[in-house]
Specification:
With 214 residues, the chain is mainly alpha-helical. The chain is built from seven helices and four strands; from the N terminus they run βαααααβββαα.
C-alpha cells in the first residue's frame, strides 16, 4: 500500500467533512461524510481515545495508534524468570548426577537447555518488536493525529480527504494505520482479513474531467 503525504490545503469550502470557514471567518463544524453528524458526535481520534470511557468501551483499543510492546524492564524480568526456571532444570540434572540417576540427569539437562534457549528467543523477539514500534511510530502518529471519529456511525475519516478519501470503519482505520507504519505483522488474524474500501477520490476533478487516483 503506497504512502501519501498530507496536503497542506483542505477541500473546497462547503464540501462535506472539509475544514471550510463560515462567513465571518469562524471555522465550520466538521461533518461526518458517512452520516452527516457534527458537533459533539465528531471528535479527533486522539480526543476520542482520551475520553474517560474509551478504555471501558474498547474504543481506545480499536483506534490504537500502535501495538503495545514490552518495555526493557519487562524483558529483564522475563529473562530472570526464564533463568530461574532453567536453574531448576540444572538442579535436577545435578541431583541426578549426585544420586546416580541418569533419567534425572538427562531430563534436567534437556529442560535447562530448552528453557535457556526459549528465554533468549522471547527476549530477542521483544527487542525486535520494540525496535519495529519505535521505527514506525512517527508514520503512525502522522496518520493518526488528524483523523476524526464519528460516534454516531462509528466511522473514522479525514476532513481534508487526505491521506484517505472517505470514511473507514474502526477496524479498517486501524489496519490502514498499522500497515502504513509497518505494524502489519502485529495485527491479529481477524484484522488481517479486513479489506480496505477502494480509494474513491473525493477531491475536485482533474483537468480533462477525471479525478486523480491514489
Amino acid at each position: 500500500m503506497s504512502s501519501e503525504k498530507f496536503e497542506g490545503s483542505g477541500p473546497a469550502a462547503g464540501r462535506v467533512g472539509g475544514p471550510a470557514e463560515e462567513s465571518g471567518g469562524a471555522p465550520a463544524l466538521v461533518v461526518c461524510p458517512r452520516c452527516g453528524a457534527s458537533g459533539s458526535s465528531v471528535r479527533t481520534v486522539p480526543d476520542a481515545c482520551a475520553a474517560p470511557d474509551s478504555p471501558i468501551s474498547g474504543l481506545s483499543d480499536r483506534l490504537a495508534k500502535a501495538p503495545g510492546a514490552d518495555s526493557r524492564f519487562d524483558s529483564f524480568m522475563h529473562f530472570l524468570e526464564g533463568m530461574a526456571l532453567a536453574g531448576v532444570g540444572a538442579g535436577l540434572a545435578y541431583n541426578g548426577v549426585q544420586d546416580d540417576r541418569p533419567l534425572f540427569t538427562a531430563g534436567g539437562a534437556v529442560l535447562a537447555v530448552l528453557l535457556c534457549v526459549g528465554t533468549l528467543w522471547v527476549i530477542r523477539g521483544e527487542s525486535r518488536e520494540r525496535a519495529a514500534v519505535a521505527a514506525g511510530l512517527p508514520r503512525a502518529d502522522h496518520l493518526w493525529q488528524p483523523a476524526h471519529y464519528c460516534a454516531a456511525c462509528e466511522s473514522v475519516f479525514y476532513p481534508t480527504g487526505s491521506p484517505w478519501p472517505g470514511p473507514l470503519t474502526t477496524d479498517q482505520f486501524k489496519k490502514y494505520v498499522w500497515t502504513e507504519a509497518g505494524f502489519d505483522e502485529q495485527l491479529d488474524e481477524q484484522l488481517k482479513k479486513v479489506e480496505l474500501p477502494p480509494r474513491t477520490p473525493s477531491g475536485p476533478a482533474a483537468p480533462g474531467g477525471t479525478h486523480d487516483h491514489a
